[in-house]
Design a protein that fits this description.
Its EC number is 6.3.5.2. Residues 2-206 form the GMPS ATP-PPase domain. The chain has 331 residues and is α/β, with parallel strands linked by helices. It is 43% helix and 19% strand. The protein has helices at residues 4-19, 33-46, 64-75, 86-93, 99-127, 145-153, 168-173, 187-196, 201-204, 224-243, 296-309, and strands spanning 24-28, 50-56, 80-84, 136-140, 177-179, 252-266, 269-282, 290-291, 313-318. The chain has a 5-stranded parallel β-sheet with strand order 3-2-1-4-5, sandwiched between helices. Strands 6, 7, 8 and 9 form a 4-stranded mixed β-sheet that branches. β7 and β8 (290-291) form a beta hairpin. It is globular, with a radius of gyration of 21 Å. The protein binds xanthosine-5'-monophosphate. Xanthosine-5'-monophosphate (XMP) binds at residues 103, 159-163, 208, 210-212, 252, 286, 323, 327-329.
């Protein structure tokens, strides 16, 4: 007789048993549902012997690093280190336009930063007062059941391409073993688990956000200025979607910064500024998707707020492409 409550109890017991009385675990968190639920579960099982690391790659949404810190560390008590590596990421991304190159740079830099932080934590736990308090033996992965199936049957490119899963160096150099507490669960079960673990509803129901972040939503070179413009426009867009009560009706919504300039008139001045494209889709599995039909007044409000409040933007367009032939992301 399987219930989520009994799953939690059994999984916590299993984690305690495999970690033993001293074993420590590290894991990356992103602010997404899976990594947050996995982190909270580890915290329930072994407390501060679970170390979460969040890498700020400079292409997160507005205030995201601060918000994830507040939620995981302050509200949920998870032992969390936030590493601000935005300078390094943005330096490596400078002048890169090719989408796959952006993905590779972000994936590889993520691994570099995560590995360095992991070995710092490992040394710290060993050296404290000269006692071997425990050391990192395990790496947490928020792998879900569909990922397990997919890696077994190896069907090729997946609906969500997970750059973050490539942490082979850690497994080899630090001799870490994998711990995967969500490996038997589907996405909706992870959400149910999150609710039982007191993870806030707005996080549990969050739209997916890609590992390469805003870098694949800035068409053209990624600079701090471009990131700021897109963060601001995206923030307004999502805020108005929530205000209109539409967030849970949409599978994924986000803004895209186009690499073109257009002429406009603001006040009595001619402007020559950038263009924001809005994307909102409904989808079962993200293999196919339909564009979302907004009430016109919601689009009107969003457009007027973005052009008034985001400096550097004078035009807003709405993407009416389905997948296929479009993809969900523009890059
Ligand atoms: P596409 O654009 O392929 O997107 O139709 C389908 C889903 O996958 C997400 N996506 C990614 N997620 N790393 C990720 O973690 C990526 O490189 C990546 N590319 C696309 C996208 O946001 C959508 O949910």
């Amino acid at each position: 007789n399987w219930t989520m409550e009994s799953f939690i109890g059994k999984e916590i017991a299993r984690i305690r048993e495999i970690c033993g009385p001293k074993g420590c675990v590290i894991g990356a968190v992103s602010g997404g549902v899976d990594s947050s639920v996995a982190a909270k579960l580890m915290h329930e099982a072994i407390g501060d012997r679970f170390h979460a690391i969040m890498v700020d790659n400079g292409v997160l949404r507005m205030d995201e690093a601060v918000q994830v810190h507040k939620m995981l560390s302050e509200d949920l008590g998870v032992n969390l280190t936030v590493v601000d590596a935005s300078d390094l990421f943005l330096e490596r991304l400078a002048d890169v336009e090719d989408p796959e190159k952006k993905r590779k740079i972000i994936g590889n830099t993520f691994i570099n930063v995560f590995e360095e932080e992991a070995s710092k934590i490992d040394h710290a736990t060993k050296n404290e007062r000269g006692e071997a308090k425990g050391e990192i033996e395990w790496l947490l992965q928020g792998t879900l059941y569909p990922d397990v199936i997919e890696s077994i049957s190896f069907k090729g490119p997946s609906a969500t391409i997970k750059t973050h899963h490539n942490v082979g160096g850690l497994l080899k150099d630090m001799k870490l073993k994998l711990i995967e507490p969500l490996r038997e669960l589907f996405k909706d079960e992870v959400r149910a688990l999150g609710r039982l673990l007191n993870i806030p509803a707005h996080l549990v129901n969050r739209h997916p956000f890609p590992g390469p972040g805003l870098a694949i939503r800035i068409l053209g070179p990624v600079t701090r200025e471009q990131v700021k413009i897109l963060q601001h426009a995206d923030h307004i867009y999502i805020e108005e979607i929530r205000n209109a009560g539409l967030y849970d009706k949409i599978s994924q919504a986000f803004a895209v910064l186009l690499p073109v300039k257009a002429v406009g008139v603001q006040g009595d001045k001619r402007t020559y500024e950038q263009v924001i494209a809005l994307r909102a889709v409904t989808s079962e599995d993200f293999m196919t998707a339909d564009w979302f039909v907004f009430p016109p007044e919601v689009l009107r409000r969003i457009s007027s707020r973005i052009t008034n409040e985001v400096s550097g933007v004078n035009r807003v367009t709405y993407d009416i492409s389905s997948k296929p032939p479009g993809t969900v992301e523009w890059l």
